[in-house]
Amino acid sequence: MGDIIPERTPLLIAAEINIIKQQTEKMVLNNFIEIGRRLTEAKVLFKYGEWGKWLKESVGFSQNRAEKLMRLYEAYGSQQLALRGTGMQAQELPNLSYTHALIILGVPEEDRAQFISDIDIESMTTRELQQAVDDLKQSQQEKAGLQKALNDEKEKNTQLAKECDNLKKETNDLWKSKQELQQDVEKKAMENKKLTENSNFKSYQRVSNELAAAQIKLLTSKVAFRYETLGKAFKELTFEMDLLAKIDPQVYGEYKKMVNDFLIKAMQERMGN
User: Fold this and answer.
1) How many Å apart are CA 165 and CA 160, to the nearest integer?
2) Which residues contact 83 (CB under 8 A, 6 or more apart)?
3) Cβ count within 10 A of residue 50
4) If we measure between CA atoms, which residue out of 83, 84, 72, 90 comes closest to residue 34?
5) 130: which residues sit within 8 A by CB, 6+ positions away?
6) Which of 70, 161, 194, 237 is buried most, with the most CB atoms less than 10 Å from its CB?
7) 0.70 surpassed by pTM
8) What is the H or E stretch that residue 207 is in?
9) Is 37 helix (H, G, I), strand (E, B) or coil?
């Protein structure tokens, strides 16, 4: 009996056509990669200005076309040759058309293999593939933007924390200065007491004047200290309020009203005096 010849149906014919298309597209891509390899080899042999002339006269390529083919070789061919050179089996290229292969060059090299494995390239149109590449780029840009914003926020918080530490140090220094002035006043007071007990009017008067000057200096220092402390406290309060506004705007609004009411009441009481 002779071999059974399968019935030629539209479905069978379409399957055969699609297989031939895939084989042809793969062969075309491999051939373009090989052309890119040879163009890469040839380019280094020419002096500046001779490359474009050779392309046009010898192989009928524009420099733009040649650059695309060399990019194909660099992306898909050089890795294959490198693997063969180590004795390892080269990876099988996906069934890509020349146009699809060029579009995928828009994906960063480190993400390209994962991108190819995540999508069904063979069933996608050129427009769909380009859209997928554009979506990936936009996603990466948004991710990079968010990362930059996060880094900026971290840097800002670090700077604010550093400023708070500096404010605390300045406050401690002011407090130490105040203590030293207080001790000086107490010392002058003791001297004044001794002079008074000795009934030495001139010395007493001199010490009294020194004591008055020291008291004025102490009060001035206290006022300056309170002013500096108030300013720093208000700055710290503003910093904490800004953080609270980001976390809980409603609670922030309540505290903002409380602070405003306090400031208005303080000003009214002070003006009354």
Assistant:
1) 9
2) 89, 90, 91
3) 11
4) 72
5) 103
6) 70
7) no
8) helix 201-247
9) helix
Q: Tally the residues of the chain.
A: 273
Taking the C-alpha atoms of residue 219 and residue 224, their distance in angstroms, rounded to an integer, is 8
Element (H, E) at 250: helix 249-272
Burial (CB < 10 A; 0-12, 13-18, 19+), residue 7, is exposed
Pairwise CA distance, residues 115 & 133, whole Å: 9
User: ∠ at Cα 63 (59, 64), nearest 5°?
Assistant: 120
Using DSSP's 3-state secondary structure scheme, residue 97 falls into: coil
Alpha-carbon distance values, 197 to 172, 191, 209 (Å): 38, 10, 17
Q: Which residue type, as a one-letter code, is found at position 101?
A: A
How many whole angstroms separate alpha carbon 79 and alpha carbon 98?
18
- The C-alpha angle with vertex 145 and arms to 142 and 150, in degrees rounded to 5, equals 125
Q: What CA–CA distance (Å, rounded) separates 161 from 150?
A: 16
Asked whether the predicted pLDDT for residue 71 surpasses 80, the reply is yes
* Cα gap 103→21, rounded to integer Å: 19
Q: Which amino acid type is present at position 273? A: N
Question: Could you identify the residue written with the tokens 């200005």?
Answer: 49
The mean pLDDT of 191-207, rounded to a whole number, is 66
* Burial category of 101 from C-beta neighbours within 10 Å (exposed 0-12, middle 13-18, buried 19 and up): buried
